[in-house]
Description:
Elements lengths: L1 E13 L12 E13 L2 E5 L7 H9 L7 E2 L7 H7 L9 E3 L5 H4 L9 E5 H7 L11 H4 L4 E5 L3 E2 L6 E5 L8 E7 L3 E7 L5 H6 L9 H16 L2 E5 L3 H6 L9
Amino acid sequence: MKMHMLSGGRLRGRRTTYFPNATEGETIELPVSCVLLRHAQGNVLFDTGCHPSIADNAEARWGSLAKLLIPVMTCEDTVLGGLRAVGLSPGDIDVVICSHLHTDHCGCNAFFDKATVIVHAREIEIATSADAARRGYFDVDWDCGSRMRSISGQLDVMDDGRIVLVPLPGHTPGQMGALVELDRSGRFLLASDAVSVRENLDRDIIPRNTWNAERCARSFDEIRRLERAGYRVICGHDAPQWEQLRKGVDAYE
């Protein structure tokens, strides 16, 4: 199996979201990570990132959220462009895993109409609640006619231990990570927004954009346990880490 890191866009947000003691007005760069897993049984995509249209007019799709998360990207800087760079199209993807249903993680779901979309049941529940849009959930992103498979616990996606989904709630009720086992490069935890920014985990800082602080702290503990067991943690939006990762055709194997 090969693992390709693909850009899902790039945003600029308020630093106080992740570091409550930061100075008001400070900003933080937030690359959006997506991951292509080329398994012998099919191509699996972990998160689909931002929709290309937000590069030119984020407010049209996001409304007031566009004032809090500012796109600093081109329309080509999405998972669609990343797939083209490795010789694939959306039709080549068999499974899409949604770590959660915030707009910057499932914005391109509609392009993958041949794939089965796996998502935690609690995410569907909150994404259909009355105040979903205020929480960063938009129907246009995820409710697009895809074949959806909802789960409520761990799932071995290919039944061979190579891609195992694990609940890591806290950021959202149905936040999931993926444990990935590669032959040469070792073991990875695709943490998504269970750890958006590495420093939050290292300094035990609960971000402000957290659904439940107690559950987030428990997930931090579980992630530390997995790291001690040999898993390399891949964060959802950590700019320094993103710069150090192999990307595109330069795959982990």
